[in-house]
Specification:
Layout lengths: L1 E2 L8 H12 L3 E7 L10 E7 L2 H19 L5 E3 L6 E5 L3 E7 H7 L1 H4 L4 E5 L4
Parallel strand pairs: 1-7, 3-6
Antiparallel strand pairs: 2-3, 2-7, 4-5, 5-6
Helix pairs in contact: 1-2
Length: 125
């Protein structure tokens, strides 16, 4: 795994997603660049975590609003809203994974996709 800087992210959709997450104080944002990974299902994963089901749900709403505002795009599918432990938002080439902390640790997506280029975004306090 190679970790690069936030300034290396050029994809407008990914930047809008990050902005939406940060607006609601999402934590531990990681962007996994999967473009050079064989058998990847999309170009990017954006992974982050929230403190509660309410926080996770609020981030989903914020990402939808920010992405629509900045890019005009809507997710093709959103899954996991019922229990809000792990909500997946599918934007075709970018898939957003918004977890509660325990679920993120359990599934450990960053480890499963450790051959991807990874960008860790600093938390905003």
């Amino acid at each position: 795994m190679y970790i690069c800087r936030m300034s290396e992210i050029k994809d407008a959709l990914v930047l809008a997603i990050i902005d939406g997450i940060q607006d609601i104080k999402g934590k531990k944002i990681s962007v996994l660049d999967l473009r050079k990974v064989d058998s990847s299902v999309c170009d990017y994963f954006v992974v982050c975590e929230g403190n509660s089901s309410t926080h996770v749900s609020s981030m989903v709403d914020s990402v939808e609003d920010k992405v629509r505002e900045m890019t005009g795009e809507k997710p093709t599918h959103v899954e996991g809203r019922q229990n809000a432990m792990w909500i997946l938002m599918d934007y075709y080439n970018v898939v957003v994974h918004i977890f509660q902390k325990d679920a993120r640790e359990y599934y450990s997506l960053e480890t499963l996709w450790d051959d991807a280029v990874r960008v860790d975004i600093a938390d905003i306090d």
